[in-house]
Amino acid sequence: MNQAFLLLLSHVAFLFLLLTICTSSDTISVYQNITDGDTIVSRNEKFELGFFSPGSSTNRYLGIWFKNTSPHAVIWVANRETPLSNTLGMVTLNNQGILSVVTVVGTTIWSSNSFVSFTNFNSIAQLMDNGNLVIKYANSVIWQSFDYPGDTFISGMKLGKNLITGREMYLTSWRSADDPSTGEYTVSLLTEEYKYPQVYIKNNYVIETRIGPYDGIEFAGLPNYKHNPDHMYMVDMVVHEKEKYFQYTSNLTTFSLKSTLNPSGKVEISQLDVRNHKWMSDHTMPIDYCDNYGLCGPFGSCSTSNSPTCECLKGFELQNPNSDNWTSGCKRTRALDCGRGEGFFTFSSMKLPDTQNAMLPKKYEDNFFFISTTIYTNISKLGGKK
């Protein structure tokens, strides 16, 4: 009797252990199906992957979100352009390392572009502690979700370009709060060779807001958002022959920061309050009317405390005085002859000019942040990370 009881108890313990392992797994194995209602959770229990419906929509999407936070914070969506219309979909990883979202009749509506040239059963898809979904074979990453960001930028992600493959990593807004398909807005880093890094918010490829340039510590032109050296994350601008990208990183599991491009084109930076697991707004860009790109034109300046908001810099006058349109900017009040009495004026608390036409000399490539953009603007504060 005691033997039978002990045997039964051991079976119950084994089933409980098996259930615990299965429900807390952070991986998907070859031909392991994840159905709607099932999830995998990162080892640190910070991120979760599964099917969800955004807002008031009944469509189903495969996504990754911060676990146990309010409001629900989705950071990545797989099938954002092709939703499931019911809860009968599933995720599967085949023996060539391809992760797919399939319908109940087996139709593939989304798949990763990962591929190994031979059949194997050792590939896995794993949800990492930083929220990155990776597909691995023999300890090598053959695909990762961080290479295909959506509307949200988090620690460990890259905003920039792989100069070898040409793949660019940038944010794209959702169509609406109920529809994660690609919206009208993007956030991208200027990644042209020998150009100073700055960020653009664009509406259908038209620049609406410029953030930067990057000065070695932070992006210039954000008067209400100053980098605090005591913040629990590291900001890096990385430039070398293979990549050019911006990222911030934090190894603290108790700290989370996210930047989301919303459907109206605003970037909302939020910090997680670890005490109540709620997201708190930290900053929003663009800040005000003067953040509209090229609003006052060349040699013009903008201030929301002035009326009108646009005015010409000292020594310049309006290009078209009979027009209320400032986009053509200002011109010199008299010709510049560089003679006696000529000099420079100091302007403080102003956003640096657009540097997309400023060239970084090739010989300074190894000291990227130690040079000045022009004779009147010093863009560098200290050496950036290479």
How many β-strands, per DSSP? Answer: 28
Q: Span from first to last CA? A: 70 Å
Low-confidence blocks of residues: 5-24, 364-386
Question: What is the gyration radius calculated from CA atoms?
Answer: 26 Å
* Helix content range: under 10%
DSSP strand (E) fraction?
25-35%
| Rough outline | elongated
Q: Averaged pLDDT, please?
A: 83
Structural class based on helices, strands and sheet pairing: mainly beta
Structure description:
Residues 1-25 form the signal peptide. InterPro entries: Bulb-type_lectin_dom (IPR001480), Bulb-type_lectin_dom_sf (IPR036426), EGF (IPR000742), S_locus_glycoprot_dom (IPR000858), SLSG/EP1 (IPR035446). Keywords: Disulfide bond, EGF-like domain, Glycoprotein, Signal. Involved in sporophytic self-incompatibility system (the inability of flowering plants to achieve self-fertilization). Residues 286-322 form the EGF-like domain. The chain has 386 residues and is mostly beta strands. The protein has 3 domains: 26-145, Bulb-type lectin domain (Agglutinin, subunit A, Orthogonal Prism), CATH 2.90.10; 149-292 and 354-386, no CATH class; 295-349, no CATH class. It has one helix at residues 2-23; strands at 27-29, 34-35, 40-41, 47-52, 61-66, 74-77, 90-93, 99-102, 108-111, 124-127, 133-137, 140-144, 152-154, 159-162, 168-169, 171-176, 179-189, 199-203, 206-211, 234-239, 243-249, 257-261, 267-273, 278-285, 300-302, 310-312, 316-318, 330-332. It has a 4-stranded antiparallel β-sheet, with no helix packed on it. Strand 8 and strand 9 form a beta hairpin. The N and C termini lie far apart (70 Å). 30% of the residues are buried.
